[in-house]
Amino acid sequence: MSYLLRKPQSHEVSNGVKLVHEVTTSNSDLTYVEFKVLDLASGSSYTEELKKQEICIVAVTGKITVTDHESTFENIGTRESVFERKPTDSVYMSNDRAFEITAVSDARVALCYSPSEKRLPTKLIKAEDNGIEHRGQFSNKRTVHNILPDSDPSANSLLVVEVYTDSGNWSSYPPHKHDQDNLPEESFLEETYYHELDPGQGFVFQRVYTDDRSIDETMTVENENVVIVPAGYHPVGVPDGYTSYYLNVMAGPTRKWKFHNDPAHEWILER
CA separation (Å) from 109 to 41, 101, 185, 232? Predict the structure, then answer.
C-alpha cells in the first residue's frame, strides 16, 4: 500500500468517540496540514485544547454542538449522508482555545488543522454561506462547496472545500499542483483528501506525482480512505457507476490557492 494512502480505523478514544483517521506532522510528510476524522455516538463528547493552531470543525454527517466556552453553536449539521449533496455547517476557531464537540445525533466530524500565528474570532460557517461552484466540461465536471476558501479572511492559513465528482468524470484535472512558494505564479499548499464513495463498495483512482517523479504513486482509493499530498500533481478519476465525494484541507506559508497545471496535459482545457 502506498505511504500516501491511509485506511480508516476505529480506535475508541473515549466513551462513544472513535478515531477514524489521524494525520499529523509526526506520522506523515506534512508540515502545515493535520487532519482527524471522529465518529461520535449520540450524547458523547470530545474535548481538545489548541496550541498555536487553527481548526475548522466540519459536521460531515449528523448533528453536533460546538463550544469554545465563549461561543456555542447548537445543533449544527445538515445531512445524514454527504451524498445528499447539500452543504453543511462548520466552525472555525484558533490559538490557545479549548473546545468541546457534543453529538446531538450520531455524527461524523472532520477536524482540519494548520499552524496559526495569531488568534482570530471563532466563527460559525453556515451551510448557506458555502459558495457553490460547478467546474469543468466534458468528462471533467465537478461541484465544489467552498467552506473556507482563500477569498474568506476568517483564517490565517487553512483552506477547506468539499468536491463531488460524478460517474465517469475526473477532478483535480487536468493534473495540477501547488508545491512552489513562488507567488504570483504558484503557491505552496500541502493537501489531504478524505474520500467517500456512493455506493460504498466503490473506489476511485488517484495519482500523486512530481515533475521529477521523486513522488509517483497511483492508488486505488476506497470509501473513507485518506490520501496525503505533500507535493505534486494529484488528479482523481471516478469509475462508471459511482459518485465521488472528497473533503480537501490545504495549508501552507501563504493562504493563497494558486495552482500550476501539468504542461503535458494542459491542452485539455483548450478544447
Answer: 11, 9, 34, 28
Q: Which fold has domain 5-270?
A: Jelly Rolls (2.60.120)
Q: Quick one: average pLDDT of 100-119?
A: 97
pTM assigned to the model: 0.97
Residue closest to 33 by CA, chosen among 23, 43, 41:
23
For the stretch 57-86, pLDDT in tens is 999 999 999 999 999 999 999 999 999 999
Instruction: Parse the chain into domains and list their residue ranges.
Output: 5-270
Please answer whether residues 123 and 111 qualify as being in contact, where contact means their C-beta atoms are separated by less than 8 angstroms.
no
CA-wise closest residue to 4 among 252, 244, 234: 234
The Cα–Cα gap between 74 and 81 comes to: 20
Do the Cβ atoms of 235 and 264 come closer than 8 Å?
Answer: no
Beta bridge partners of 242: none
Cα–Cα dist 89/66, whole Å = 11
